[in-house]
Amino acid sequence: MFQINGEKESKGKKKAAKSDSDESEEETKSTKSKKKSTAGSASMFQIDKDKDKDKDKDKGKDKDKGKDKKTKKKGKAEDSDDSDESEKEEKSKKKKGKGKKKKERSPSPEIEFDDLEKFVMQPAPQGVTVKCRVTRDQRGVDKSLYPLYYLHLDNEKKTFLLAGRKRKKSATSNYLISIDATDLSRGGENFVGKLRSNLMGTKFTVFDNALHPDRALPDMSNARQELAGIIYETNVLGMKGPRRMTVLIPGMSKDNERVPLRPRNDCDGLLIRHQSRRMDNIIELHNKTPVWNEETSSHVLNFNGRVTQASIKNFQIVHSKDLDYIVMQFGRIADDIFTLDFNYPMCAVQAFAIALSSFDGKIACE
Asked: Which residues, in sequence order, are CB contacts of 322 under 8 Å at separation 6+?
């Protein structure tokens, strides 16, 4: 699904696609599928060069799908039953009032790493949702204008991952991202990336900590990479409703590594390439469109209990080819606490920077 600029596929690939679609039709009759296969989601993000190499592997996988079909249906039926029961429990708890505790949010799976900088730059492991929490510290006169943001794993240990802060005296919004909560300087050893906006605050670019192209080697081997581009659709008519956003990230290789994108100038970056539709090695994602709920008179998304408060900042990022595969979701759970979950192929720095862009003021988008 995440392969870029698809060419004409072989007959074998077409057969595989047909068998997949037939199975999905049968499965949706019983219950909606919660999760796509890890292999399928990984292929969505691969670049053209790796597409053909995976075709033979897909043929073999299709043969095994028939065997697992019955077990999949049983598992999905059980999942749907569990979700129905949990919904009933939540409703009963609300009716009973303050006497009982609320259902706990599901924590992040156990994730271990030795090198923090390496971990926050690597794509999330396939099949694993990295569940995190963003906290905003705006206590004090200075922090009310330039709050500090912290990213922790949402587990018992509350493992620290990243910190971010808006830079002062910048012509446009500019956020520094660091792996040390006490060191948020541009020249520090813990600086891992930055987020920069345009004058209107509607377009953002995420960079790593390498050198500016003007100071890099001629071969650009030590030049900075663009990790993401974020575009918020301008609200010219002033109509109320949820924000619309587009997220651009580099494509993935067959080895599940990010394809380096080192533009020599701003005219060759993610945002300009998207504008001119030069989408080679680029993955285009969008926020999932919320559904209007007549009972609550509001737009709603299913965060599976991970988000508890309504906010214009709440969003889910998906690929157009699979709206059920949540690449990233972000939403409020308290005044200064937010949920941030992400999946392959996104990394912690990309996800955190996208979250920071949602905090930034956007007069043209409101």
From this structure: 1, 36, 40, 41, 44
Q: What is the CA angle 98-101-105, rounded to 5? A: 135
H or E segment and range at residue 38: helix 38-44
Length of the chain: 366
Q: Please tell me the distance from the alpha carbon of residue 272 to that of residue 179, in angstroms, as a whole number.
A: 29
- Contact in structure between 129 and 109 (CB atoms under 8 Å): yes
Full-model pTM: 0.74
What does the alpha-carbon distance between residue 307 and residue 341 come to, in Å, rounded to a whole number?
10
Which value, to the nearest 10 degrees, does the dihedral of the CA atoms of residues 163, 168, 173, 177 take?
-20
CA dist., res. 82 & res. 79, Å (int): 5
* Residue with tokens 């651009």, as numbered in its chain: 248
214-223 long-range contacts, Cβ below 8 Å, gap at least 24?
216/262, 220/262, 220/264, 223/262, 223/264
Distance CA 334, CA 234 (A): 27
Read off the amino acid at residue 163: A
Q: What is the per-residue pLDDT across 25-74, written as a single tens digit (0 to 9) for each?
A: 444 444 444 444 566 677 778 776 665 555 555 555 555 555 554 444 44
Which DSSP category does 359 fall into?
H
